[in-house]
Specification:
The complex is a heterodimer.
Chain A: E1 2-7, H1 11-22, E2 27-30, E3 46-48, E4 57-58, H2 59-67, E5 74-76, E6 80-88, E7 91-98, E8 101-112, E9 116-118, E10 127-128, E11 134-136, H3 137-145, E12 154-158, H4 162-173, E13 177-182, H5 192-200, E14 205-206, E15 209-217, E16 219-227, E17 240-243, E18 246-249, E19 253-255, H6 258-261, E20 287-289, H7 300-320, E21 329-333, E22 337-341, E23 344-345, E24 351-357, E25 361-368, E26 373-380, E27 386-390, H8 392-395, E28 401-408
Chain B: E1 2-8, E2 17-23, E3 26-31, H1 36-47, E4 50-51, E5 54-60, E6 66-71, E7 75-76, H2 80-88, E8 92-93, E9 101-105, E10 108-112
Classes of the chains: A alpha/beta, B alpha+beta.
């Protein structure tokens, strides 16, 4: 019987595995890809690791730093988990296929780090011809940066989040023409350093616009764009066509939680990931979650941090036959908070709060109402996750809940 | 005549808004930065913008068909198209390891960032 089975060999899973091993736990790491590292291996741009390794690395370099610490751990790649069975709080089974066949292992805890999936064309209401040349940004990235294949020559990108912008740079560097980035919201979706890319390559950004239709015979030929009003409704008469051979969809990520929902893990509709306590334990005792399966992060550094935290949670769970806590204080979304995690705080330990605002705002105060904690910030943006440490002493002042809100500084 | 360049700092995720005032090709004033790295970056961004450049190179006999590479240090922005053409002509044979230098472009090392 394992102490921990980690599902997913990306940065969260590797960091969780390494920490669990350091804590003396018997670990098995499973990944369905044929290599570890997850999406990091195709994120060949720099900007990773500034917090976690105090050094700027590319995605693969970040991944190799972690991989090099996995010595002595049992790792299975090409191992796809089919089912998690929650037999009891203290015993779970993981069923997976691998080149060795179907296997079933038992474990005391599970750390689920299966990452996220990308939203696709149908989910954002694009209609038209089902032609070649429509990719998600991640697919295009896999083609270019793992397999060395150019997905197209004249490209329109939907969504100005980090993934879309980074792909705009890769296409431009490799000689393709990025004809436009189309963003539904009235503000860009990515981190400031990535917005810079548009200026570097003279790529037009259409804010408050939407791709509605793709036409082509065999391959994408033209793409219909329309302006939207403040309620995101299409404004008729504003339609125009852009000629392109490729449409790349970068319309956001959704935590990959199917295996968890099948065993009744409670999901927070605003994060798309599980509801967790401050050990990142889900509503099913002994099942922990970290990384983009918990909530969509903007920095891999936070993902790795969450992995470590989940491993510490697993250790505590095993030692005590459960996560001991006298009470749980709810962390509640207040004004201009779109999502947050963790959802339940014990007040027995310091905790990182991860949150996103619903809309951009300048000169603000982030307030934790019931405990009187206030943090002034010059600016908040939906694209940039807030990461704030609450001390155990501060949290324990609350009775049953703490409301987090972002308000204008007075 | 002085001109003020205003941009969002990309050195770290803090994203400070920095203003650089330039007069007759000389930097007169820098405002809005919160660290020396940001100040330095903003001045360079006006006078000689540079970028780290990344790409992939085909690899023969590797586990994956390509290896990813980056420039060891930022290169001037106007050199990037030339650099990309240079990179497009390179091929390597497995094995290569993270950190290997596989080529040099005008004194800047091209470093492998993924094993193959």
């Amino acid at each position: 019987m394992y102490d921990v089975v980690v599902i997913g060999g990306g940065p969260a899973g590797m960091a969780a595995t390494i920490r669990a091993k350091e804590l003396g736990l018997k670990v098995l790491l499973l990944d369905d890809n044929d290599y570890l590292g997850g999406i990091l291996l195709q994120c060949i741009h720099p900007g990773f690791g500034i917090h976690y390794f105090k050094e700027e690395l590319t995605g693969p370099e970040f991944a190799y730093r972690l991989m090099n610490k996995l010595d002595g751990v049992e790792v299975k790649t090409s191992a796809r988990v089919l089912e998690i069975i929650n037999y009891s709080d203290l015993e779970k089974f993981v069923v997976f296929t691998s080149p060795e066949g179907v296997q079933k292992v038992s474990t005391k805890t599970i750390i689920y780090t299966a990452g996220a999936r990308e939203r696709h064309a149908f989910e954002i209401g694009i209609v038209g011809d089902r032609v070649a040349g429509i990719y998600t940004a991640g697919e295009a990235q896999t083609l270019m940066d793992i397999y060395g294949i150019m997905p197209g020559k004249e490209i329109v990108i939907v969504g100005s989040g980090d993934v879309g912008l980074i792909m705009a740079r890769r296409f431009s560097l490799e000689g393709a023409k990025v004809k436009a980035v189309i963003e539904l919201m009235p503000y860009p979706g990515g981190l400031a350093r990535n917005i810079m890319i548009l200026k570097d390559f003279n790529i037009p950004l259409y804010l408050s616009h939407k791709v509605v239709e793709v036409r082509g015979r065999g391959r994408v030929e033209k793409i219909k764009v329309v302006k939207v009003d403040e309620n995101l409704r299409e404004i008729s008469g504003t339609e125009f066509w852009i000629e392109a051979d490729t449409l790349v969809i970068s319309a956001g990520l959704i935590p990959n939680v199917k295996l968890l929902t099948e065993i009744g893990v409670v999901i927070d509709p605003s994060t798309g990931g599980p509801i967790v306590n401050d050990r990142l334990e889900t509503s099913v005792p002994g099942i922990f979650v970290a990384g983009n399966a918990l909530l969509i992060n903007d920095l891999v550094d936070y993902v790795a941090e969450q992995g470590e935290l989940a491993a510490e949670g697993a250790k505590e769970f095993i030692e005590n036959g459960g996560i001991p806590s006298k009470r749980w204080i709810r962390l509640v979304k207040g004004e201009n908070i779109r999502l947050l995690a963790p959802h339940y705080l014990s007040g027995e330990r310091d905790v990182w709060i991860y949150a996103r605002v619903a809309r951009p705002m300048e000169d603000v105060v982030v307030e934790f109402v019931e405990i009187g904690k206030k943090i002034k910030l010059p600016v908040v943006k939906p694209a940039e996750m807030l990461r704030i440490k609450l001390r155990a002493k501060e949290i324990s002042k609350a009775e049953d809940k703490i409301t987090m809100k972002v308000v204008k500084h007075e | 005549m002085s001109k003020v360049y205003r941009f969002t700092c990309i050195v770290c995720p803090l994203s400070c808004t920095i203003e650089v005032e330039v007069e007759n090709g000389e930097v007169k004033n820098v405002k809005g930065y919160t660290c020396p790295r940001g100040k330095e970056w903003a001045i360079e961004e006006v006078t000689n913008p540079k970028r780290i450049v990344m790409s992939v190179i085909p690899v023969e006999g590797g586990r994956l068909p390509t290896v990813s590479v980056k420039t060891e240090k930022p290169v001037p922005k106007d050199k990037i198209p030339e650099l990309m053409k240079f990179l497009a002509g390179i091929k390597v044979k497995a094995p290569v390891r993270v950190g290997d230098v596989i080529a040099e472009f005008e004194g800047v090392k091209i470093v492998v960032t993924r094993d193959a």
